[in-house]
Hints:
It is a single chain. Helices cover 44% and strands 12% of the residues. The chain is an alpha+beta fold. The radius of gyration is 23 Å and the shape is globular.
Amino acid sequence: xxAAVQPTVVLAGLFAREFAEMAxxxxxxxxxxPRLLVLNEPLATELGLDPASLQSSEGLRLxxxxxxxxxATPVAQAYAGHQFGGYSPxxxxxxxxxxxxxxxxxxxxxxxxxxxxxxxxxxxxxxGLAAVGPMLxxxxxxxxxxxxxxxxxxxxAVTATGRSVRRETVLPGAVLTRVASSHLRVGSFQxxxxxxxxxxxxxxxxxxxxxxxxxxxxxxxxxVALFQAVVTAQASLVAKWMLIGFVxxxxxxxxxxxxxxxxxxxxxxxxxxxxxxxxxxxxxxxxRYSYRNQPVVAEWNLARLAEALLPLFQDDQxxxxxxxxxxxxxxxxHYSAAWSAGMKAKLGLPVGxxxxxxxxxxxxxxxxxxxxxxxxxxxxxxxxxxxxxxxxPVRGLFLDLAAFDAWLKRxxxxxxxxxxxxxxxPVYIPRNHLVxxxxxxxxxxxxxxxxRLLDAVRTPYEERPGLERYAAPAPENFGAYxxxxxx
Length: 487
Ligand code: AMP
Ligand code: MG
């Protein structure tokens, strides 16, 4: 091979070095026949990696962890977590590895991480593998979230391994190369706290402050400030999910980041008709992680983070609890403020409009939407037409026109700005039926539908001719959507 195209990547190995208690050095499994399915070239460039060299055979081996750059130490990270409310003291990366950290174009550290790279000592009963479909799902959904302005981990590449993965059927295997501002989770702090080693907990909190909230190092109570920052970041994140109709599906505490990025796209999906009780995950029988429960669950998870951090807040436990309660209490305020501001924008209403005026308009609309079972993405996008004097398309979605017309009149009297609406209400999102279609084809070896879908969702707000089917709701026969956790 031409030496000029050999990829170079410098991985800092910071977490591996500083948190040996929570980082198990481990190797990715060899794979029979690596083949690149998709590479995120702009992201590679942002990370200082040369996209062309990543496509060489050495580059592919870097992307799946079978070639370790000199000096790097891939590790499986240890973490704990509440899964569906039940505590597991030792989860950790069962099929994932942190390769190390790179410095991006803005000078920030970013984790480079693998999913589906083989069993680790945290694998429990799992096979350590991942299938092409779910890894491409994470790729397309995370990239869509990113362009929609929703903080998220990113996807650098999906590489088919040439190895079969046994699920309900036998599926082609793949490795996802994921990039995150860090993989620190609520569960990481639960794990550190459970060791009883307060120095480890403190070092982990200092590390989180350094990486994500550096100005807080100067705060009077840096650890309370860290907790408050996570509360604020998660309130804003979950409000963004709710505004776009994103259902994460598995909001366990190990799947909630300290950075405020969305992480671990498993049984996630975008809501079609507006229905607060929406659940997609086949294993979520009680609806714990339904659309409407997401803010409540986020708050519950943050309470678990507070419990873990408590020893750092104050020596006096009662005072420590009082500080935690005070910060956690701000979640609802931050969440409501983010939701209301987002709803104002979706409806094109002036930023300064009083909430006493906006709230009833929003509440009434959501009640109407719930009654009519129309696709909510299509509804919000077509509503801007009404603000431009063309109410026909949006009215066409309703059967009970009397109720909707009354609402339209009230809303229109508030002088909605259609351009503001078109900047926040997407035309293209990864609609469930399109995602399924793309993943099914990819599993059978045809990547074209996936590439077309990825292309459509990359420019969510700009309507393009020829992409009509990507803007259309699911066909009637698509039925009730179900997603699966065993990815
Ligand atoms: P998740 O629900 O994907 O966030 O995963 C929860 C836990 O299960 C984590 O500790 C994962 O590493 C582990 N896990 C999930 N799938 C597998 C698998 N196929 N093999 C080994 N571990 C897995
Ligand atoms: Mg997880």
